[in-house]
Amino acid sequence: MEIVDSCLDILHEIDSTLNLKYNKYYIGLTNQFGVNNFVVFRAKKQHVLVNAYGLNKSEIQTWHEKMGETKLSLLSDDSDGNPRFRIFSKEDLDQYRDPIKELFAACYQGTK
After folding, report:
1. What gap in Å lies between CA 37 and CA 20, rounded to an integer?
2. Fold annotation for 2-110
3. What is the mean pLDDT of residues 61-65?
4. Is 108 in a helix, a strand, or coil?
5. What residues contact residue 80 under an 8 Å CB cut-off, 6+ apart?
6. Which residue, 31, 78, 72, 69, is CA-closest to 51?
7. Where are the domains positioned within the chain?
8. How far does CA 112 lie from the centroid of its chain?
C-alpha cells in the first residue's frame, strides 16, 4: 500500500482534493464532486497494477512510447488502448516519478 499512498502524493500535486476509494477489486479515486477514476490501482502481493484512463486516441500511442522508455513493466492494453503498467517498488516509483506524474496529469485533463 506504500506504493499507492505515494501515487496519491503525486496525484495531490495535480488536484489536492483527490482521495483514494477502496473497493473490493480495485482502488479508485474520488474528489469533491464524486468518483473520478482516471487512474485505477490494483494492489497485488508483488506489485501495483496501474490503469490510466482519459487519454484521447492521439495521445495513447505517445504515452505507450514514453512509458516504454521506462523500466516499468508495460502491459498489453485494455480494449480501449489505455496504458497499463506495474510498479514493483517504491524505488521504481521514485525513479520514474516525472513520467508517471505527466501521465496522471494528462489523464486528469482528459476527464475534465
Report:
1. 10
2. Aspartate Aminotransferase, domain 1 (3.90.1150)
3. 79
4. helix
5. 53
6. 78
7. 2-110
8. 16
